[in-house]
Amino acid sequence: MTRNGDILIIGAGIGGIQASHLLSKAGHQVHLVEKTAHIGGTSIKFEDVFPNLECATCMLSPLEQELLQDPNVHLLTLTEVAGLEGGPGDFTVRLRQRARYVNLENCIGCGACYDACPVSAINEFEEGLSQRKAICIPCAGTLPNVPRIDKEVCIRFKGQECVACQQACMFEAVEYGQEDRDIELKVGAVLVAVGSGTMDVRELPHLSYGVHPGVFTSLELERLNASNGPTEGKIQLRDGRAPNRVALVHCVGRRERTLCSGVCCRYLLKFRHYLRHKLPCAEVLEFHGDLCLPNKGDQRFLGEMAPDGEGLVRAEVVRIEVEGDYLKVIHRRDGREAIETVDMVVLSPALTPPKGATELARTLGVALADDGFFVVNGVASSRPGILILGGASGPKDIRETVVEALAAAGGACKAVMEGEDGK
Amino acid sequence: MNARVGVYVCECGNNISDQVDIAALVPMLEGAPGVVKVMSHRLLCSKEGQEFLAEEVRKEGLTHLVVAACSPRQHLPTFMEVCKRGGLNPYLMQMANIREQCAWVTSDRHEATEKAARMIRAAIARVVRQAPLPEREVEANPDVIIIGGGLSGTVTASMLAGPERRVHVVDRNPALAVALTSLKGVETHGGCEVEAVRGFFGNFEVELASKGSRQEVRVGAMVVCTGSRAMTLQEMGYPGSEAPHVVVLPQDPESLRPYLDALPSGQPKVMFVHCAGRERVGYCSGVCCLRSFKAMRWMAETAPNAQLSCLHQDICVPGRDGEREYQGILGIGARMTWGRLTALAQQGPQVTVSFRREDGSIGQDAADLVILVPATVPNHGARALIDIIGVEAGPAGFVEEAHPMLEPVSTSVKGIYVAGSASGPRDGRATSLLSLAAAAQIAAELRPGKTLRLEAQTSQVCEALCTGCRNCMTVCTYGAIEYDLVAQTCRVNETICRGCGNCVAACPSEAISVKGATYQQILQEIKEAVR
Amino acid sequence: MARGADIGTEMPKALREAVQRLMETGGFEGTFTLARTPGGGVDYFLSTKEEGAPELLPLHPVMPNHAGRLLREMTLGGAMRGKVLVITRPCELRGFVEIVKRLQGCLDNLVFLSVVCGGVFPLSMVSAGWDGKRTEEYWAYPDGRPVQGLRPACQGCTEFIPYTADLVVAPSANGHWALTAGSEEGGRLIERAFPSAPAAEMDPKALEAMAVARKAGREEVLSHEADVKGLSDLVKVFGRCIGCHACSKACPICYCTLCTFESSRMEDRMEQSKGQLEVKGGIRAPAGTVLFHIGRMGHMAVSCVACGCCQDVCPVGIPVSLLFKKVGEAVQARFEYVPGRDVKEALPINTFQPMEFKEVGE
């Protein structure tokens, strides 16, 4: 029996991208499947990454660009896995690709269509902090630099005769006639690189998220600080004022989930850098428990971000109360309760299993553990030929994700080869 | 030969032509030195545009090509391909970015047109000084040498060895694990050390020495799997650590059994002290809290009458199992105290443990047995090996990754990889994953029967200007520069050079330049731009 | 200070005998020291124990060549193959260490014997014929009385104690000389070579006396010839230069294979200086004589060990060494740097520290 050396990768975040590069170099054809319309995953939401405060875009965009030009990588955006049969070396996978309504070949990404579109909708990529059009890319710089039409909000798909975007396009790239399509592929192995989700902090009502506009999640702060984000990099409150006193709250949901996510301490420390840079006058208080700094360079990073422990408060945040424009952070320190009044709170929610993990696990026929993450042994799932990498099998930072991506890519090659041997 | 430069201006639909007056621009460029043809096109990157351009190169017999269009980040590879199809060396093409750097950012149409003309003239001045660069390849040896025969070495070897690839495993220890020696396609060199390394990715010569004998192994790549070890009591340097009832937590808690047997009857106190040696090494090892908790659980089961306590600093238990294990320890009633160990003292049958709390105050406790949970440090001999093979190491002596996130198993030297805990403290799972990752990376980059493509735009040393100061050698992260003892000047090994240009900046005599970006090219380009 | 052995009072004979013993017992393949040339002069030799070896004159009080410069040439390609006993003056050792920092030489396999230095005489005195008695008088220098006729650089040298020598010949009590250890290796060598010699130590009083004399000497030499203020004075003094570049040839720090001032860059200097010609109406040929010195100063002042070799070879009597010493000391003080003190100490001009010279930046 001839075995198939093609590999399916689900998820085009940093893990999926690095696995694709490696497999392409190793001579495999890669089918890279991405649920959204763009690649890059969560990492492209960051301005800088710890511990070297490297510019994330500068780090990722060459990798993304290279991926788009790689003849061995077949990228399928807006695509999800609908079914999987077979075994290592001989899987048949059914995919469902939603229509983009924009021709990837013709579009050059000039953006003329956005201005023309009369619709305004909430931009989910920006954590709801800004508005987008029905035809749009999530933010400047996302790749492929080709917009899509969001059928859910586009008025044309609600029966109105709007052709504004088509008329604005100089390259005849807008194609209302496109249809969703089913794709069937033969692959030798499957890599699952769907990343993690974050806990919905509304589950913890005592933290006043959604009640007071001064409470933000960490991803919201990332986007506020991002130069391609909704405020072009201004860190501000929802009414546009600059905050004077900011509380960074560690370990949100740690106890509820019985899980230390392992990345929050470091990114909250990184926020100190953002805040110092953008709001040099603002006072920052960091309410933390155990500081989790597991890598060899992290202690140095702590020293740089919080010299002499400046702004570090070892205390448990009991609740956050609203007081007019301000927020009272009630915390327990050395057994006693104390209060600090601030005007901005940033919560660091626990990392959770990815959205839709249950359905994906069922589709792929692999096991999920009690905690909702995929069951793994190293990077192997419970089903031969299917490998799990990155945040899907527990909270990971970028480094760990990339290590697993490389390891899983190696595992996929091996799975295909063992298939060839007829084992 | 006279230069025949063709200049092709892309309108990019309306993206460029809206802001730049193409009709006015074209005549402004005609008559520039060497230019034989100037033309505009609606969209050069389109299929039709590419074919047109390739045909133009052939038809007009162009020696150099300037494409005035978008950012080379977007379409440099596209137009280099076009050159090849048109029979022109791709390095004889220069892009002028008149979209992002001109049309999209310059509001006045007249100014934008003027600016585009300057940018294109600058590109012309640069491209005519460009030399064709050959695409180069080198034969590569697929064999791999792994230094260190522990867990990471074994995993890496088992993944790599095969009918087309021989794997050598070197270890200072003469007796290597059966798991290794029985592997097909693996040649083990027990009791050997690496003495010297010559060559580069694809073709390394590694000199091995054992007692009285030497041998040379030829490989294409190397993997550092030297691992790590626990810090010793002496290295931690706590006063009083020689006390008999003080012990370092061993890998396997079972080894603690003799100490348990020696505990007094009744309810003996056993104290685990975290972060032993952390201040000295300057980092959190990240794996010890969980190891300690597992040992505490074992202790609670093995010696149920013992009173467990734990002197800890910040608990570091990232990931799926850590927090549960931590809660479990709290559940069995272990007494947790936050403190930094300062001193130990044997007083009668007990050990007094002194520590400093976070507020600076001093505390004391006593226990019948004190178990220090040690920091993880690089293995013996790692430092010497790092110096021999020339990879970069961090302040703690661990091998530094080529990029801390994106290239976690590559080092500063191309072709030398690192796996397991040689690059930092790791638990078993991380060690295996890093080893699998290193093996996968090598399998992809060093494929049996395939040649390696070399960088065309390498740097070059002008011997007449080089003063032999060797500054370039100190900044070259690839080890691509050699000192020529006869000429007393430096020389670039073009097989290793990646064209980063560090050496160009470091050279005080302007003796080094990168092909395709020489001083003359840049100077003339700037002169045209600001004329 | 580690253990030392008394070698008696009769210098330089005692020194020659000590070197002999070290060679016999120390496991050296060779020695690098001053020795008698076939023509009766003195120069450095690398010699083995074989027959026909020249007569050794260790630490003879002249500096025909800077040993650091010679060692650089010998170790440019890598370490010396066998163990060699190198006998040099402190400034020569420091100069070599500086050049090793510049990756131009290698310290491996070299064992250094140096001296609490009394300075050396100018080369001109050697060529005029050497009076044997002068040597004997010379070795009385530890009593603090200035030796007449030393090179100006030596008269004002305050760095006369070697930093990194394994063995140091030093004045001991009562006019005796001692061979003392500056490193563990040195200690072992002394134990093997002089198992029964009486123990002896460096005499701090002698060092004190020398330091006082040298400080006074330093004031003296720097206040006369080197009393140069501002560019106009520099132009005047360096104006004497004939462009022979002998100073850079003698310098232990100047090592460039091809000096810019000797390269083809200088050939079209007239073309480059057209603008100057238009402004000034005249430019000097040969061009760049003054610029050469100022450029050289910029390159090496931070490493200048004030050995005096440059001045010794200047045919037109420019006080090169004193000027370089004056500038060098000022630059070195800014970086709290002593050239050649420790091979691990980074070169200030190759080291960037974000916080240094804040006042210059502001």
Helix amount of chain B: 25-40%
Structural class of chain B, by secondary structure, is alpha/beta
User: Span between N and C termini of chain A?
Assistant: 11 Å
Shape of chain B: elongated
CATH topology of the largest domain in chain B: FAD/NAD(P)-binding domain
What do we call the CATH homologous superfamily of the largest domain in chain B? FAD/NAD(P)-binding domain
Percent in strands of chain A? 25-35%
At the first level of CATH, what is the class of the largest domain in chain A?
Alpha Beta
- End-to-end separation of chain B: 27 Å
Question: How many domain modules of chain B?
Answer: 4
Structure characterization notes:
The complex is a heterotrimer of chains A (423), B (531) and C (362). Chain A contains 10 helices and 24 strands. By secondary structure, chain A is α/β, with parallel strands linked by helices. Chain A folds into 3 domains: 7-98 and 180-196 and 353-420, FAD/NAD(P)-binding domain (3-Layer(bba) Sandwich), CATH 3.50.50.60; 112-168, no CATH class; 200-350, 3-Layer(bba) Sandwich (FAD/NAD(P)-binding domain), CATH 3.50.50. In chain A, the strands form 8 sheets. A 5-stranded parallel sheet of chain A has the order 5-2-1-13-24, with helices on one face. A 5-stranded parallel sheet of chain A has the order 15-22-16-17-18. In chain A, α1 (14-25) crosses α2 and α7 (264-278) runs parallel beside α8. The longest helix of chain A has 23 residues, at 398-420. With 531 residues, chain B is α/β, with parallel strands linked by helices. Chain B folds into 4 domains: 5-133, Rossmann fold, CATH 3.40.50; 144-227 and 380-445, FAD/NAD(P)-binding domain, CATH 3.50.50; 233-374, FAD/NAD(P)-binding domain (3-Layer(bba) Sandwich); 455-515, Alpha-Beta Plaits (2-Layer Sandwich). The radius of gyration of chain B is 32 Å and the shape is elongated. In chain B, 49% of the residues are buried. Chain C is of the alpha/beta class and 362 residues long. Chain C folds into 2 domains: 4-223, no CATH class; 230-361, no CATH class. Chains in contact: A-B, B-C. Chains A and B meet through α1, α2, α8 and α10 of A and α3, α12 and α14 of B.
